[in-house]
Amino acid sequence: MLSVGFIADRIGRKRGSIMTASIMFVGAVLLTASDAPTINGLFLMFVIVQAIYGVGVGGEYPVASSSASERANSFKSLRNFRGRTVVLVFSNQGLGNLVNTAIILALMAITGQHGPKYSARAIEIVWRVQYAIITAVIGFMLLWRIFGLKENPHFRKRSGQASGFGGRKMNVLLGHFSSRIWASSITWFVNDFAFYGNKLFQGVFIKIINPHANLIQVLEWTLLNSFIAYLGYLLAAYHIDKPWMGRMRLQSLGFLMSFILFICCGAAYHQLIHPANIHWFQALYYLASFFAQYGPNCTTWLIAGELIPTDARAMAHGWAAAVGKVGAIVAGVVLGQISDQNKFIVSAITGLVGFVITFIFVPDTTSLDLMQLDLYWDKLMAGNGQDYHGEAVNPKNLSLWERMLGRGKLYDLAAHAAQLKGVEMTNTGHGNGNAEGINKSMA
Q: Which SUPFAM superfamilies match (predicted)?
Protein backbone atom coordinates (compact mmCIF):
# COMPACT_ATOMS: atom_id res chain seq x y z
CA MET A 1 0.00 0.00 0.00
CA LEU A 2 2.76 2.43 0.91
CA SER A 3 5.19 1.61 -1.87
CA VAL A 4 2.73 1.05 -4.72
CA GLY A 5 0.76 4.18 -3.81
CA PHE A 6 4.00 6.20 -3.96
CA ILE A 7 5.00 4.63 -7.29
CA ALA A 8 1.56 4.97 -8.92
CA ASP A 9 1.65 8.77 -8.58
CA ARG A 10 4.78 8.70 -10.75
CA ILE A 11 4.31 5.96 -13.32
CA GLY A 12 0.56 6.47 -13.81
CA ARG A 13 -2.62 4.60 -12.97
CA LYS A 14 -2.48 2.20 -15.91
CA ARG A 15 1.07 1.07 -15.27
CA GLY A 16 0.38 0.91 -11.55
CA SER A 17 -2.66 -1.31 -12.09
CA ILE A 18 -0.69 -3.58 -14.44
CA MET A 19 2.02 -3.87 -11.81
CA THR A 20 -0.41 -4.90 -9.05
CA ALA A 21 -2.23 -7.37 -11.31
CA SER A 22 1.10 -8.92 -12.37
CA ILE A 23 2.15 -9.44 -8.76
CA MET A 24 -1.23 -10.93 -7.87
CA PHE A 25 -1.09 -13.25 -10.88
CA VAL A 26 2.33 -14.59 -9.88
CA GLY A 27 1.13 -15.01 -6.29
CA ALA A 28 -2.08 -16.77 -7.38
CA VAL A 29 -0.15 -19.22 -9.58
CA LEU A 30 2.15 -20.02 -6.65
CA LEU A 31 -0.83 -20.42 -4.30
CA THR A 32 -2.39 -22.91 -6.68
CA ALA A 33 0.82 -24.88 -7.20
CA SER A 34 2.37 -24.66 -3.70
CA ASP A 35 3.55 -27.98 -2.32
CA ALA A 36 5.97 -29.42 0.21
CA PRO A 37 6.84 -32.87 1.63
CA THR A 38 5.49 -31.97 5.10
CA ILE A 39 2.50 -29.99 6.38
CA ASN A 40 4.83 -27.56 8.18
CA GLY A 41 6.74 -27.03 4.95
CA LEU A 42 3.50 -26.39 3.09
CA PHE A 43 2.43 -23.88 5.72
CA LEU A 44 5.77 -22.04 5.42
CA MET A 45 5.39 -22.00 1.64
CA PHE A 46 1.89 -20.52 2.02
CA VAL A 47 3.18 -17.78 4.31
CA ILE A 48 5.83 -16.76 1.77
CA VAL A 49 3.46 -16.93 -1.21
CA GLN A 50 0.69 -15.05 0.62
CA ALA A 51 3.24 -12.29 1.33
CA ILE A 52 3.94 -12.01 -2.41
CA TYR A 53 0.25 -12.06 -3.27
CA GLY A 54 -0.44 -9.55 -0.50
CA VAL A 55 1.87 -6.97 -2.09
CA GLY A 56 -0.35 -7.02 -5.18
CA VAL A 57 -3.58 -6.90 -3.19
CA GLY A 58 -2.32 -4.11 -0.94
CA GLY A 59 -1.08 -2.09 -3.90
CA GLU A 60 -4.44 -2.50 -5.60
CA TYR A 61 -6.09 -0.38 -2.89
CA PRO A 62 -4.55 3.03 -3.69
CA VAL A 63 -4.32 2.38 -7.45
CA ALA A 64 -7.91 1.21 -7.92
CA SER A 65 -9.48 3.89 -5.73
CA SER A 66 -7.48 6.75 -7.26
CA SER A 67 -8.03 5.53 -10.80
CA ALA A 68 -11.77 5.00 -10.33
CA SER A 69 -12.38 8.43 -8.77
CA GLU A 70 -10.31 10.24 -11.41
CA ARG A 71 -11.87 8.32 -14.28
CA ALA A 72 -15.38 9.12 -13.05
CA ASN A 73 -14.42 12.77 -12.59
CA SER A 74 -13.21 12.93 -16.22
CA PHE A 75 -16.56 12.14 -17.79
CA LYS A 76 -19.63 14.35 -17.54
CA SER A 77 -21.95 11.34 -17.43
CA LEU A 78 -20.16 9.92 -14.36
CA ARG A 79 -19.13 13.08 -12.51
CA ASN A 80 -22.29 13.23 -10.39
CA PHE A 81 -21.94 9.51 -9.66
CA ARG A 82 -18.25 9.47 -8.75
CA GLY A 83 -18.88 7.99 -5.32
CA ARG A 84 -21.14 5.28 -6.73
CA THR A 85 -18.55 4.39 -9.36
CA VAL A 86 -15.75 4.04 -6.81
CA VAL A 87 -17.83 2.13 -4.25
CA LEU A 88 -19.06 -0.29 -6.92
CA VAL A 89 -15.42 -1.00 -7.75
CA PHE A 90 -14.78 -1.68 -4.07
CA SER A 91 -17.96 -3.75 -3.77
CA ASN A 92 -16.29 -6.43 -5.88
CA GLN A 93 -14.30 -7.26 -2.76
CA GLY A 94 -17.59 -8.14 -1.06
CA LEU A 95 -18.75 -10.00 -4.16
CA GLY A 96 -15.47 -11.92 -4.15
CA ASN A 97 -16.01 -12.96 -0.52
CA LEU A 98 -19.53 -14.11 -1.35
CA VAL A 99 -18.62 -16.04 -4.51
CA ASN A 100 -15.50 -17.55 -2.96
CA THR A 101 -17.44 -18.93 0.02
CA ALA A 102 -20.07 -20.35 -2.35
CA ILE A 103 -17.35 -21.99 -4.46
CA ILE A 104 -15.76 -23.61 -1.39
CA LEU A 105 -19.16 -24.89 -0.25
CA ALA A 106 -19.88 -26.33 -3.69
CA LEU A 107 -16.46 -27.98 -3.89
CA MET A 108 -16.87 -29.41 -0.39
CA ALA A 109 -20.22 -30.90 -1.42
CA ILE A 110 -18.85 -32.25 -4.72
CA THR A 111 -15.95 -33.98 -2.95
CA GLY A 112 -18.27 -35.37 -0.26
CA GLN A 113 -16.76 -33.48 2.68
CA HIS A 114 -19.84 -33.18 4.89
CA GLY A 115 -18.71 -34.30 8.33
CA PRO A 116 -15.85 -33.85 10.80
CA LYS A 117 -13.86 -36.74 9.26
CA TYR A 118 -12.34 -35.00 6.26
CA SER A 119 -10.17 -36.45 3.53
CA ALA A 120 -6.82 -34.66 3.23
CA ARG A 121 -6.74 -35.40 -0.49
CA ALA A 122 -10.27 -34.04 -1.02
CA ILE A 123 -9.52 -30.87 0.95
CA GLU A 124 -6.38 -30.35 -1.13
CA ILE A 125 -8.46 -30.58 -4.30
CA VAL A 126 -10.86 -28.00 -2.87
CA TRP A 127 -8.26 -25.34 -2.16
CA ARG A 128 -6.25 -25.97 -5.35
CA VAL A 129 -9.35 -25.65 -7.55
CA GLN A 130 -10.46 -22.59 -5.59
CA TYR A 131 -7.12 -20.86 -6.20
CA ALA A 132 -7.07 -22.02 -9.84
CA ILE A 133 -10.39 -20.21 -10.42
CA ILE A 134 -8.98 -17.06 -8.80
CA THR A 135 -5.83 -17.33 -10.95
CA ALA A 136 -7.92 -17.47 -14.12
CA VAL A 137 -9.87 -14.35 -13.13
CA ILE A 138 -6.68 -12.44 -12.31
CA GLY A 139 -5.12 -13.58 -15.60
CA PHE A 140 -8.07 -12.14 -17.52
CA MET A 141 -7.83 -8.91 -15.50
CA LEU A 142 -4.10 -8.61 -16.25
CA LEU A 143 -4.61 -9.06 -20.00
CA TRP A 144 -7.40 -6.49 -20.04
CA ARG A 145 -5.28 -3.95 -18.21
CA ILE A 146 -2.37 -4.46 -20.62
CA PHE A 147 -4.32 -4.37 -23.88
CA GLY A 148 -7.69 -2.75 -23.10
CA LEU A 149 -7.13 -0.16 -20.35
CA LYS A 150 -6.16 3.41 -21.19
CA GLU A 151 -4.70 5.97 -18.83
CA ASN A 152 -7.55 7.99 -17.33
CA PRO A 153 -7.85 11.52 -18.76
CA HIS A 154 -7.79 13.26 -15.39
CA PHE A 155 -4.39 11.84 -14.42
CA ARG A 156 -3.03 12.35 -17.91
CA LYS A 157 -3.68 16.10 -17.63
CA ARG A 158 -1.75 16.18 -14.35
CA SER A 159 1.02 13.75 -15.27
CA GLY A 160 3.58 16.50 -15.85
CA GLN A 161 3.08 17.99 -12.39
CA ALA A 162 2.89 14.59 -10.68
CA SER A 163 6.09 13.21 -12.20
CA GLY A 164 8.29 14.44 -9.37
CA PHE A 165 7.64 14.75 -5.66
CA GLY A 166 10.34 16.65 -3.81
CA GLY A 167 10.59 18.29 -0.42
CA ARG A 168 8.49 21.28 -1.45
CA LYS A 169 5.49 19.14 -2.40
CA MET A 170 5.81 17.03 0.74
CA ASN A 171 5.92 20.15 2.92
CA VAL A 172 2.79 21.56 1.27
CA LEU A 173 1.01 18.21 1.52
CA LEU A 174 1.75 17.71 5.20
CA GLY A 175 1.42 21.37 6.07
CA HIS A 176 -1.98 21.88 4.48
CA PHE A 177 -3.61 18.46 4.22
CA SER A 178 -2.26 16.73 7.34
CA SER A 179 -5.63 16.77 9.14
CA ARG A 180 -7.24 15.02 6.15
CA ILE A 181 -4.51 12.39 5.95
CA TRP A 182 -4.69 11.87 9.72
CA ALA A 183 -8.51 11.62 9.72
CA SER A 184 -8.69 9.20 6.78
CA SER A 185 -5.97 7.05 8.38
CA ILE A 186 -7.40 6.88 11.91
CA THR A 187 -10.98 6.27 10.77
CA TRP A 188 -9.68 3.46 8.56
CA PHE A 189 -7.69 2.11 11.54
CA VAL A 190 -10.69 1.93 13.88
CA ASN A 191 -12.94 0.54 11.15
CA ASP A 192 -10.51 -2.26 10.29
CA PHE A 193 -9.96 -2.96 13.99
CA ALA A 194 -13.66 -3.70 14.43
CA PHE A 195 -14.32 -5.15 10.95
CA TYR A 196 -11.38 -7.55 10.65
CA GLY A 197 -11.31 -8.21 14.37
CA ASN A 198 -14.84 -9.54 14.31
CA LYS A 199 -14.15 -11.31 11.00
CA LEU A 200 -11.23 -13.13 12.63
CA PHE A 201 -13.49 -14.26 15.46
CA GLN A 202 -16.48 -15.00 13.24
CA GLY A 203 -16.00 -18.71 13.93
CA VAL A 204 -16.29 -18.05 17.68
CA PHE A 205 -19.57 -16.23 17.12
CA ILE A 206 -20.94 -19.06 14.98
CA LYS A 207 -19.98 -21.55 17.68
CA ILE A 208 -22.02 -19.47 20.14
CA ILE A 209 -25.03 -19.71 17.81
CA ASN A 210 -24.47 -23.40 17.13
CA PRO A 211 -21.91 -25.05 19.45
CA HIS A 212 -21.96 -28.26 17.39
CA ALA A 213 -21.51 -26.63 13.96
CA ASN A 214 -19.27 -28.55 11.56
CA LEU A 215 -17.16 -26.98 8.83
CA ILE A 216 -20.00 -27.01 6.28
CA GLN A 217 -22.36 -25.27 8.71
CA VAL A 218 -19.71 -22.67 9.57
CA LEU A 219 -19.31 -21.96 5.85
CA GLU A 220 -23.08 -21.64 5.45
CA TRP A 221 -23.24 -19.03 8.21
CA THR A 222 -20.24 -17.29 6.64
CA LEU A 223 -22.03 -17.27 3.28
CA LEU A 224 -25.07 -15.64 4.88
CA ASN A 225 -22.85 -13.01 6.52
CA SER A 226 -21.09 -12.33 3.20
CA PHE A 227 -24.46 -11.88 1.47
CA ILE A 228 -25.68 -9.40 4.09
CA ALA A 229 -22.39 -7.52 3.86
CA TYR A 230 -22.65 -7.37 0.05
CA LEU A 231 -26.10 -5.80 0.33
CA GLY A 232 -24.43 -3.13 2.47
CA TYR A 233 -21.92 -2.43 -0.32
CA LEU A 234 -24.67 -2.04 -2.91
CA LEU A 235 -26.86 0.20 -0.76
CA ALA A 236 -23.84 2.35 0.10
CA ALA A 237 -23.13 2.78 -3.63
CA TYR A 238 -26.75 3.77 -4.22
CA HIS A 239 -26.84 6.44 -1.50
CA ILE A 240 -23.26 7.76 -1.46
CA ASP A 241 -23.87 10.55 -4.01
CA LYS A 242 -27.28 11.63 -2.70
CA PRO A 243 -27.11 15.24 -1.42
CA TRP A 244 -29.02 14.29 1.72
CA MET A 245 -26.50 11.54 2.52
CA GLY A 246 -23.03 12.00 1.05
CA ARG A 247 -19.72 10.66 2.31
CA MET A 248 -19.48 12.15 5.78
CA ARG A 249 -23.05 11.37 6.85
CA LEU A 250 -22.85 7.78 5.59
CA GLN A 251 -19.57 7.18 7.40
CA SER A 252 -20.93 8.75 10.59
CA LEU A 253 -24.08 6.63 10.37
CA GLY A 254 -22.07 3.44 9.93
CA PHE A 255 -19.79 4.17 12.87
CA LEU A 256 -22.70 5.19 15.10
CA MET A 257 -24.69 2.06 14.28
CA SER A 258 -21.64 -0.12 14.87
CA PHE A 259 -21.25 1.47 18.29
CA ILE A 260 -24.92 0.94 19.18
CA LEU A 261 -25.09 -2.64 17.91
CA PHE A 262 -21.80 -3.80 19.44
CA ILE A 263 -22.49 -2.13 22.79
CA CYS A 264 -25.83 -3.93 22.89
CA CYS A 265 -24.06 -7.24 22.19
CA GLY A 266 -21.51 -6.56 24.89
CA ALA A 267 -23.85 -5.18 27.56
CA ALA A 268 -26.43 -7.97 27.19
CA TYR A 269 -23.94 -10.68 26.21
CA HIS A 270 -24.88 -13.28 28.83
CA GLN A 271 -28.60 -12.82 28.18
CA LEU A 272 -28.14 -12.93 24.39
CA ILE A 273 -26.18 -16.20 24.37
CA HIS A 274 -29.05 -17.95 26.13
CA PRO A 275 -30.71 -20.36 23.65
CA ALA A 276 -34.02 -18.49 23.95
CA ASN A 277 -32.39 -15.21 22.80
CA ILE A 278 -29.77 -16.47 20.38
CA HIS A 279 -31.64 -15.21 17.31
CA TRP A 280 -31.58 -11.66 18.70
CA PHE A 281 -27.83 -12.03 19.10
CA GLN A 282 -27.58 -13.27 15.55
CA ALA A 283 -29.64 -10.34 14.23
CA LEU A 284 -27.47 -7.77 16.06
CA TYR A 285 -24.26 -9.32 14.77
CA TYR A 286 -25.41 -9.45 11.15
CA LEU A 287 -26.78 -5.91 11.34
CA ALA A 288 -23.35 -4.79 12.52
CA SER A 289 -21.85 -6.54 9.50
CA PHE A 290 -24.32 -4.71 7.23
CA PHE A 291 -23.54 -1.27 8.68
CA ALA A 292 -19.81 -1.91 8.46
CA GLN A 293 -20.30 -1.97 4.67
CA TYR A 294 -23.13 0.56 4.57
CA GLY A 295 -20.73 3.01 6.10
CA PRO A 296 -17.03 3.12 6.99
CA ASN A 297 -15.68 0.09 5.13
CA CYS A 298 -16.83 1.65 1.83
CA THR A 299 -16.42 5.30 2.71
CA THR A 300 -12.88 5.06 4.08
CA TRP A 301 -11.78 3.49 0.78
CA LEU A 302 -13.53 6.24 -1.19
CA ILE A 303 -12.72 9.28 0.96
CA ALA A 304 -8.98 8.60 1.17
CA GLY A 305 -8.85 9.03 -2.62
CA GLU A 306 -10.91 12.24 -2.73
CA LEU A 307 -9.39 14.39 0.02
CA ILE A 308 -5.96 14.85 -1.57
CA PRO A 309 -4.96 16.43 -4.94
CA THR A 310 -4.07 14.20 -7.89
CA ASP A 311 -0.30 14.69 -7.54
CA ALA A 312 -0.30 12.82 -4.19
CA ARG A 313 -3.63 10.98 -4.26
CA ALA A 314 -2.45 7.37 -4.52
CA MET A 315 0.36 7.91 -2.03
CA ALA A 316 -1.96 9.45 0.56
CA HIS A 317 -4.52 6.70 -0.03
CA GLY A 318 -1.76 4.14 0.49
CA TRP A 319 -0.86 5.74 3.82
CA ALA A 320 -4.46 5.58 5.03
CA ALA A 321 -4.94 2.02 3.80
CA ALA A 322 -1.71 0.87 5.45
CA VAL A 323 -2.71 2.43 8.78
CA GLY A 324 -6.06 0.67 8.41
CA LYS A 325 -4.38 -2.70 8.01
CA VAL A 326 -2.30 -1.97 11.11
CA GLY A 327 -5.68 -1.73 12.85
CA ALA A 328 -6.51 -5.20 11.58
CA ILE A 329 -3.21 -6.55 12.92
CA VAL A 330 -3.71 -4.88 16.30
CA ALA A 331 -7.23 -6.35 16.46
CA GLY A 332 -5.87 -9.85 15.95
CA VAL A 333 -3.54 -9.35 18.93
CA VAL A 334 -5.82 -7.41 21.30
CA LEU A 335 -9.08 -9.28 20.73
CA GLY A 336 -7.27 -12.58 21.14
CA GLN A 337 -6.37 -11.64 24.72
CA ILE A 338 -9.81 -10.65 26.03
CA SER A 339 -13.14 -12.37 26.66
CA ASP A 340 -15.82 -12.77 24.01
CA GLN A 341 -18.00 -10.22 25.79
CA ASN A 342 -15.22 -7.63 25.86
CA LYS A 343 -14.54 -8.16 22.15
CA PHE A 344 -17.89 -6.51 21.45
CA ILE A 345 -17.35 -3.71 23.97
CA VAL A 346 -13.92 -2.82 22.54
CA SER A 347 -15.35 -2.91 19.01
CA ALA A 348 -18.13 -0.57 20.14
CA ILE A 349 -15.57 1.90 21.48
CA THR A 350 -13.77 1.96 18.13
CA GLY A 351 -17.08 2.78 16.44
CA LEU A 352 -17.58 5.74 18.77
CA VAL A 353 -14.03 6.98 18.14
CA GLY A 354 -14.62 6.72 14.38
CA PHE A 355 -17.86 8.70 14.68
CA VAL A 356 -16.21 11.55 16.62
CA ILE A 357 -13.21 11.83 14.29
CA THR A 358 -15.46 11.76 11.22
CA PHE A 359 -17.68 14.51 12.63
CA ILE A 360 -14.75 16.83 13.38
CA PHE A 361 -12.06 16.12 10.81
CA VAL A 362 -13.59 14.52 7.68
CA PRO A 363 -14.87 16.93 4.97
CA ASP A 364 -17.71 15.97 2.68
CA THR A 365 -16.42 15.95 -0.91
CA THR A 366 -19.68 14.71 -2.46
CA SER A 367 -20.18 17.75 -4.69
CA LEU A 368 -16.52 18.74 -5.14
CA ASP A 369 -14.98 18.50 -8.60
CA LEU A 370 -11.47 17.02 -8.21
CA MET A 371 -10.17 19.59 -10.72
CA GLN A 372 -10.94 22.29 -8.15
CA LEU A 373 -8.75 20.48 -5.63
CA ASP A 374 -5.92 20.43 -8.18
CA LEU A 375 -6.30 24.18 -8.87
CA TYR A 376 -6.09 24.83 -5.13
CA TRP A 377 -2.99 22.62 -4.94
CA ASP A 378 -1.33 24.57 -7.77
CA LYS A 379 -1.93 27.84 -5.91
CA LEU A 380 -0.49 26.36 -2.72
CA MET A 381 2.56 25.10 -4.59
CA ALA A 382 3.04 28.58 -6.07
CA GLY A 383 2.98 30.02 -2.55
CA ASN A 384 -0.24 32.01 -3.01
CA GLY A 385 -2.93 29.69 -1.70
CA GLN A 386 -4.74 32.71 -0.27
CA ASP A 387 -5.52 33.78 -3.85
CA TYR A 388 -7.65 30.69 -4.50
CA HIS A 389 -11.39 31.32 -3.90
CA GLY A 390 -13.11 28.32 -5.51
CA GLU A 391 -15.10 25.29 -4.42
CA ALA A 392 -12.19 23.56 -2.70
CA VAL A 393 -12.50 26.14 0.10
CA ASN A 394 -16.30 26.28 0.06
CA PRO A 395 -17.28 25.69 3.73
CA LYS A 396 -19.63 22.86 2.67
CA ASN A 397 -16.59 21.02 1.24
CA LEU A 398 -14.44 21.51 4.35
CA SER A 399 -14.35 19.65 7.64
CA LEU A 400 -15.46 21.26 10.89
CA TRP A 401 -11.80 21.51 11.87
CA GLU A 402 -10.87 23.28 8.62
CA ARG A 403 -13.76 25.70 9.04
CA MET A 404 -12.51 26.45 12.54
CA LEU A 405 -9.09 27.23 11.03
CA GLY A 406 -10.80 29.82 8.83
CA ARG A 407 -10.13 28.28 5.42
CA GLY A 408 -13.74 28.78 4.39
CA LYS A 409 -13.23 32.57 4.54
CA LEU A 410 -11.32 32.36 1.26
CA TYR A 411 -14.41 31.21 -0.61
CA ASP A 412 -15.60 33.85 -3.09
CA LEU A 413 -17.27 32.44 -6.19
CA ALA A 414 -17.30 35.79 -8.03
CA ALA A 415 -13.58 36.32 -7.46
CA HIS A 416 -12.87 32.75 -8.54
CA ALA A 417 -14.87 33.17 -11.75
CA ALA A 418 -12.95 36.39 -12.52
CA GLN A 419 -9.64 34.56 -12.01
CA LEU A 420 -10.66 31.77 -14.35
CA LYS A 421 -11.78 34.29 -16.95
CA GLY A 422 -8.37 35.93 -16.73
CA VAL A 423 -6.62 32.59 -17.16
CA GLU A 424 -8.81 31.78 -20.15
CA MET A 425 -8.06 35.13 -21.79
CA THR A 426 -4.36 34.69 -21.17
CA ASN A 427 -4.47 31.29 -22.81
CA THR A 428 -6.71 32.23 -25.74
CA GLY A 429 -5.91 29.97 -28.64
CA HIS A 430 -3.83 27.66 -26.46
CA GLY A 431 -6.68 25.54 -25.00
CA ASN A 432 -5.87 25.62 -21.30
CA GLY A 433 -7.32 22.26 -20.18
CA ASN A 434 -7.71 23.05 -16.49
CA ALA A 435 -9.45 26.38 -17.03
CA GLU A 436 -11.78 24.90 -19.62
CA GLY A 437 -12.63 21.98 -17.38
CA ILE A 438 -13.36 24.21 -14.40
CA ASN A 439 -15.53 26.57 -16.43
CA LYS A 440 -17.57 23.62 -17.66
CA SER A 441 -17.97 22.25 -14.15
CA MET A 442 -19.02 25.66 -12.78
CA ALA A 443 -21.58 26.00 -15.59
A: MFS general substrate transporter
